Structures are given as C-alpha cells and as structure tokens.
Records
---
Amino acid sequence: MDTITKATQSQKEKFLSQFKENCCIDTNRDLQNIREAAQAALEKLNFPTTRDEYWKYTRIAPILRGTYHQMPGSEPVDLGPTLIENMDSYDLVFVNGYFSPEHSSRLESESWLVLPLSEARNNYPELITKHYGQYADYEKHAFTALNTAYCQEGACILLKDNAQLDKPVRIINLTQGDAIAYHPRNLLVFGKGSKGAVLLSYETGSGNHAFTNAVSEIVVQENAHAELFLMQHKSDTNSHIETTQVFQEKNSQFQATTITLKGKIVRNNLNVVVDGENCLTRINGIYLTRGKQHVDNHTMIDHRQPHCESHELYKGIMNESSTGVFNGKVFVRQYAQKTNAFQSNQNILLTDQATINSKPELEIYADDVKCSHGSTTGQFDEEAVFYLRSRGIGEASARKLMINAFAADVLEYISIEPLRDRIEAYIEERYETVL
Amino acid sequence: MLNIKNLHASVEGKQILKGLDLQVEPGSVHAIMGPNGSGKSTLASVLAGREEYEIDEGEVSFLGKDLLDLSAEDRAREGLFLAFQYPIEIPGVSNINFLKTALNEIREYNGLPAMSAKDFLKRVKEKQALVELSGNLARRSVNEGFSGGEKKRNEIFQMAMLEPKLSVLDETDSGLDIDALRIVANGVNTLRSEDNATVVITHYQRLLDYIVPDFVHVLYQGRIVKSGPKELALELEEKGYDWIKEELELA
C-alpha cells in the first residue's frame, strides 16, 4: 500500500468511526441485512476523489476531514427560518435528523402513511422491505453506502393505489448547532394511480460546518403522478450530499425541481430509471451560488422502455468566486425506441471569478428517437440592461427583471404557489444587494 | 427644450463629435442627416447616456437640467426617449411587464402614483393599435423573435406608451419596407404635439416624406455644418453629400 492510499485509508477510518459509534440495529431481519450489507460495502469502497470521473469537479476532502457530532437540537425548536408564507401542508419535521413529533403531522389512514421512517419500519415492515434499499445502489456509491449503513431516521410517505394527497407533504430537515452530521433516509412510494407533491427541504437554524448525507428512494407506480421539490437552503458553511433514486413504472409522471440557494459544498445525484412505456419525466433545477460555494448537480435519466418523454432544464447564476457543476446524462437504451429526450443547461456568470463546468451527455443506443441537449454560459447581457434603463427602469430593477426572466422558465413549473413566491422573493433578496 | 453646445465626444479614444451645436424647441421636428461615420449614431448614444462614450467638452441641457449629469434611467424619466437603431431582444421579460415597470418608475420619479391596471391596459390597447402591433406581440418577450419591422414598430409603441417630451429616432427607417415605414411614420405623426419634439436621425430622405421636418441639419465630421428648411433634405437626396464636402473645402 503506498503512502497516499494509506493516508486516504486512515482518513476514511477516522471519518467513519464517528458514525459507527451511534449506529442502530434494526429488529427486522431484512432491514438489518441491508444495513450490514451496506456496512460491508463501505469497508471495500473508497470515498471518491477528483480522479473519479463522476466526481471530477467536486472535491469532497473538506467534508471527510471534518469532526462531527450527532445529537438532538436544543429546545425549543425555532422553525422560523423554514417558514413559507401561506403554505398549507402536512409537515414532518426532523431536527438534526431526529423526528420532532410536536411539530409534525403524522398521518396513518386507508389512503396514505406519512410517518417517520423508524415508525414505518416497525409497524409496516412488509411494506417497507418491498422497496427499502432496492433502488439506491449502496454497492457502488460510498455516500449511498454510508447512508444505508448508518441512517437512523427519515420520512416515509406511502400513497396507496388511487390516493390523492389533498395537500403537499413537507419534509423539513433542520440543522441546529455546530458540526452536526446526519444521514436522512426517505422512502416515497406513489401507488398505482395516486397523485401527490412532496417538498423536501434542508435548512439551517443555527451553527456552522454541518454535514448531511441524504438518500431518498422514490417509486412511482403505474399511472401515478409524483412531484418532488428539493430545496437546499442551508447556511453557506454547511455541506450536503443528496442522492435521489427514482423508479418510474409505465404511464407514470414524475417531476422534480431542485432548488439550491445555499451551502458550502452541495452535491446532488438525481437518477431516474424510466422502466415503463409512456412515461413523462421532467427534471428541473435552479442554483444560485456566491462566495466560495460549490454546487454540483449530477443527473441521470435512464430510458429503458419505448414511447417515453423526458425534459430537463437546469439554470444557474454564479456570483463572486463560486463554482457550479452540471453533468446531465441521458441514456436511451436500444429497446427504448420513440424516446423524446431534451436537456438544457444555462448559466450566467456574474463575475470573472465565477466558474461553471457544464457537461450534458447523451448516450443513445436506439435508432428511432428524438433527443437534444445543449449548454450555454454567458455574462449578464449589458446591452439589455442599458435598453431597460433607457426606458426609465433603474439599474437595480433592470437587473432584477433580467434575473427573474432567466429563472422564470424553471419557476413556472413549481406548482405550489407559496413555494414559488418564496423562491421568487428569495431571488429578489439575494440580488438586492449584490447588483 | 434641448440645447447642445460645442459637444465633443469620443469612444475608445477616437474623437467622433467635434463641436456639435443643436437647439430643439417644443413642437418641432428636426432631421439630422449625414454620410456614414459622420457621428449620427454617436449623437444618439451620447444623448441616451451610453457609458462607453466619453464627453470631452461641451454641454447639453434638457428642460433646464444638465443632461450629461443624469443616469440613463433619469434621462428617460425626465422625458427623453431613444428609438434604437438595433432594438435589443430580452428573452423572458414580457413587453407588458417591461412597460409597466418603466411607466411606473417614470411616474414615481415625477411624483405620480402608479397607474392602475385598468388604465394601463387601456393605454396598451390604444397605443398598440396606433402602430398596428398585434396583442400577441405586445405580450411576448421584448423583441424576441420579432421581424425587423416589428422591432421598429415596437420601439414606436414603447414611445407612445411612455409619452416622452423629446424623442430621438435613430435610423428608425433602416430595414423597413414601405408599409412598415408608413405605420411607423403615422405613429410618430399622431404623437406630435405642441409640447413635445422629435429628432429624426437618418441617412436617407425617404423617411422625411412621411415625417416632415421643420429643420434639416447636415452632420459631417462630428459637427453640424449646414442647417435649413425641409427642402434641404431633397437637395441632399438629389446631389448627395459630396456637394456639402466641396462647399466646406472651399470655405
């Protein structure tokens, strides 16, 4: 073993040892087997470096070097920072990864279950074992293995066949305190013909240098319509790795919007396996970076069956010396004829120091498909700003108009109006001072 | 209304305007003609407040204020309007939202309350009819995917919406077919009043058949070298600019 490997090895041991101590044991044997398999996989896997193609532009060493604590947040819990005006939702609140029953609405009915995962594991083991750990690959990906090995809590949303959620479910992950780490684990199953929207948000109440490593498995069964909103609004010293593994059955629709507003190192892996005919997949994203932030969106849509359609639009505004990464991969397998797949990534760099690494990728093995991809990066269009000013619009409002216009075609797909208003307001606040 | 005295301006170190004088009174239409490179577009840019142009000497007052001291947006708020030679496309910003923002910022600057949605839409309807701009275009993103003629009509539509005191039309006739030219000119003529004034910058006499000027000025090498009544435009059309050049050389 050479010295570099040794160094990496000892760093990995030190990093992992922090989570081993707190590890819990599942009473259900199937679930415990998955946990142990993930722990075994983790022994063999190395954490990625920039020498791995999949992590080429994102250096996670600062995350691995950290010393972390796992502990409940201090009482009383202040949910102020997570407030979305006029939002009517069923909430599941987790503070530092611990379920907070007094702020949550547990739902157990004929139509649906909206519960903390620990409770669902105990009370509905047969429903859970059918899906849990079946989609997110812990054999290959170290952070997914880490989550699967040491996760303690998360949200479980099960919509029974033909159930329609009357309000969105909001899963709030609030971090409180310094150097907190946890591994939220979510399971979302949209039964046949069901319909619902879920907002998964990560926010910071207080403290710095936290690390969250989330994994969500999402199953969208036949004819189901699922909408997912991921909002990352953690402080700019906190880091976040998020893996979302989606499995779509025939005639289903899935839409995800990833909104990254804050965070030090943020890495999103959104993978959608489209395993049935006649599916619609729409994945959108918007990322606003500043300071020394690093935000990386890796997406993968795997078209395995014919007659499906996917649309992907990611937009970024990079300010100061921040970095954005976009890597979008669309696979169209040989059997997936008549696939329509469209992908686009557009970026604005507000300064000369800001960077974007954009890599749209299409891998097509079928011969009767319609696919396109594209990436654009530009500066602010100063001619357009002047044009607006020459009509009496002040410089700050001219820039605001242009930023809103840039974000508009992502925001228009946010069907939850209070959420869209919140994001719009956030964008306005963000650029009030810097423009 | 507008008083330009001994204006010298340069861009990227190159002197373009070299002592330009011009006076515009309310109710009048002035045409500024001149060969390529004489400084016509520079004059428009300097008046509108483009920052890449350096003012080396001279003064410009507009309604009693030092125009050169005002930001581009404040010039517009004081009542100056520039119809661009090449209007800019702004994807994602709707014409309507753009004009509502502009109109209300102008009103706020002048101490007026924001216009009600009803009055605003009424004005939109009325003014878009004036330049025969379809409702569909008015609602689309600013100039995005517009034809050359539609872009120019949109400039006049904006002018009609904002009701400026002084409008500077920079080569508004370039690239227009005869129908579009007639529509644009009709818009400008309808908006003419005793209180406002228009400066038409053009290379060709053609536009002046439709927008009849009170004064014609010849801009050459950064200065106005000759002024006269509307007949001067016809003379220029007939004899070309060489005649002016020769006259200058003799003098």
---
Amino acid sequence: MLIHSIFFYFFSIIAIFSSLMVITSRNTVNSVFFLILDFISVGCLFIMVGAEFLGMIILIVYVGAVAVLFLFVVMMLNVAEQKQSWFIGKKSTHIPTGLIVSVLIFLELLVVVGGWKYKDNLMSSSSLIFSKISNTHQLGLVMYTDYILYFQLAGIILLLSMIGAILLTFRERPGVKRQSYIKQISRDPKTSVELKNVQSYEGVKVDD
Amino acid sequence: MLEYLQIFGQEIYRILFLLIPILVSVAMIVWLDRRVWGLVQKRRGPNVVGPFGLLQTLADALKYIFKEIIIPASANKTVFILAPIVTMTLALVAWAVIPLSEELVLSDINVGILYLFAISSLGVYGIIMGGWASNSKYPFLGAIRSAAQMVSYEVSIGIIIINVLLCVGSLNLKDIVLAQKELWYVVPLFPMFVIFFISALAETNRPPFDLPEAEAELVAGYQTEYSGMMYAMFWLGEYANILLMCAMGSILFLGGWLPIVDIYPLNIIPPPVWMLLKILFLFLLFALIKAIVPRYRYDQLMRLGWKIFLPFSLIYLVLTASFLFYFDKLPKGNF
C-alpha cells in the first residue's frame, strides 16, 4: 500500500506541476510538451486505479494523436513567445474570456459530481457485473448494452464534425493538375501515340 | 522496506536479462541489414571486422562513442538532448510486454496490444522533438513529414489490430498467440497482413517510405544536426523499433512462439527459437524491400495511407465481423 501511495503522489504531483507549466511557460512549444507530460501522468493515474483500458486509450488518443497535431500546429504557425501575461507587460484581452469559460467548466464539473452522488441507481445497471472479468470487457458490456444509443450518437457527432471541418477547409483551386492513376494505367499506345507525316516548312500543331 | 528492495533488485535483474539480448540483437540486425543490402547489389557488405564482419556494428558504436557531440548554438538544448533519449527509451520500453514463450515475458498485462500500439505511436515524438530543436530547415522539414506520415499510417495499423482482436476476443498478447493454435491469422487475414507490413515500413520510416530522411532532398532529415553518440542513439532506437514491429507482426499474424504444425520434429524446438525465427523472417523482408524498391513520392505516400489502406482495412473489418457473426464464431470471452 505504501508503494502504491508513493506512486500515486508521484504521478499526481507531476500532473499538477505540468498543468501549471502549460499555462505559465512562455514558449508555446514547451507548453505543448508539458501538456503531453500531463496526459501521460493522468494516463498512469488511470492505470493505477485499475482502469487500464482508459489509461491506454488516453495514451493512444491524446498523446499519440491529439498532442501531435497540437505540436504540429504550434510549430507550423511559429507562434512567437507569449508577450502577454497576467501580471507584467501589456494586459491580455483573452483573460476575461478565459476566466468566464473556466468558471463555467468548474460549475459544470460541480453539477456533474454533485449529481453523481445523488444518483442512486448508478451501480445497479442491468449488465454491470462485478466479477473477475477484465476492465475492458466490463466497459464493453456496459457501453454496448445500456448506453448504446449515447455511444452511437457520440460517434455520429464526431463524424459530423469531421466532415464539417473538411468542408470548411476544402478549397477548390482552378488549374491544378491532378494525377489520375486509372487514366495512367489504362492508357494504351494505340490511342496515345499518333504517327504524323510532317510536311516540311509547315510542321504540326501542338496542343489544340 | 528490505522486502521492497529485494523485489526491486529482482525486477532490475529481469529487465537487464531482457534488455542486453535486445541491444545485442539490434547490433546484429544492423549488420544483417547492411549485408543483405550489399548482397542484393552484388557487393560484399561489411565483412572485415570479426567473423563475417559480425562485429562491424560494435566497431561503429565504439567510433560513435569517441566522437564529439556537437550541439548547434541556436538549438533548444534541453529538447535537443532529450529527443534521442526519448526515441531510444520508447523503442526499448515496448519490449516489456512481448512474450517470447508462454512463460518468458517480462510483464503479462491485460491490455498488452494497446500498450504496444500506444508506445509505437509515441515514437513520433523523438523525431518531431529532434527536428524542431535543431532549429534548422532540413531537420524541421523532415520532422514535419515524418509526423504526418506516422500519424496517417497509425490509423490503418489500429484498424488492422482491431481486425485481429475481433477474432481473439482479448487484448492480452498471450491470448492472441494462443488463439492461433489451429490456424495462424496470416491465412484468413492475409490482406491485413500485407497492409500491416507496408504500414510497419511507413511507421518505422524504412524505405520505400523513408521520406523524413530522404538524403537527396533533406540531407539526413531530422538527424542532420546530430553527431556522435546522440546520432547513434537515434539509429539504435530506429532499429529497435523495426525489430519491435517485426515482433508485433509475428505475434498478430504468424502465431508468435507456436511451431508451424504441432508435430514431432517441429515441436521440440523451444518456443523462443520459433519466435526469433519469425522475427528474423520479417526482418529479412524489411531488408530486402530496402534494397529493391525505389522511394515513394510524398503525395503518393499519403494517398496510399488514407485513400487505399484505410478504406480497405475498414471494409475488411466489416467483412470479418459479419463472417464471425454469421457463422457464430465470435469469441465468447471467459466470464
């Protein structure tokens, strides 16, 4: 038990420290690196409480994909060092908005956690069986029986947002030459090569 | 407290027992790679140091150790030094869950395949950190290319893994191997095996997908500014990753430590030998492909990943699921 709590405090201190560093570090790339550290330590905490599937999914989805894209964007846009800060220099205009959003999220969390405490039949779900079966199996059993509708709805919302993002950024540029593999493969010498009898001093017309 | 220390000591002993063979086999595999490459091109390859040139990699490593480590003046020093360490560590850490036989595994966790997938998807950080921290054009371009490439091919690898998991019904690597006792998955899932192999080539930045370090355009990609031991660490990490991908392929499709057929002369060969033979077979394919296939163009690479592999593996997933459902062969699970 002692070792367990040592590891717990180790990971949670790293998680809190790195999440503080995310918002205070001047270099945006560094803050993305700290965000990654934060994700990893939260994943480790999940594994420590026995939710191994969730921990691994956090590693795969957040660290392996989402944070890579963050890093990509931050590096590509070449965002310079953060000039605005809380206390020194020019006052930021983002701070009031950020405060409102974070207060809202905090209140929402309060409502969720509070509601959770008073929901009595949470553990009496029809298919949640407490036994020796693995965490992944349990999650699957609950997710694909009781909550299948919400699960599918979440999937459809994600799909829609993906299609929306593609539509918003899609721009058809005129005059772009595209490679068509089918056309290239299905060409044959009979139609693509033509033998011409060139008259002297007249030549042939190209590109008409 | 003494108890804990004892357990700790035992664990370290077990870890070293796994790590040192891996490092030695990485050295051997580098030699094999260069040798195969040479033989395909009708050269001799490294054949001077030691018998058949086997000690060539050790000689190279010795040379790298004695070279100066140059850190560019405008580089971000912390991240620059961290990048090869991250690559090397991630490549070695993943070996913890690879089972060489039914007993010979460092940690037998429930979500082994997810762990492998997570670690291999973290591999992109070493490259992207190295490229960015170098603060130079070629490494940065190489890193950006590599990040895009690895993220794209991970998607199809993930779906291929789901294909296998549908047939097994467990995320444990041992269960995955034991489920192939009757039939290796390379037979029913052959198209997936081919796609997995090609995606593994792209995931480890091997030719024909070695665009991140395309020497004709980008000098050496993200490794351009690295020298000495730090370069060697990138290099070792890369080969350890290749070996890991081979091990993953042999566990998912070639039946891990199981013999081809369970009959007399074949089943007295110890299981780890079978596992090593399969890893070696896949690595030989990797080495041959490096020698015989020309490099892809970048847009072709992306097209292959997103427009061909992803839809194809999705369709195959639906087919596998429907087949298993229709013939009532879905794994029941042990509860």
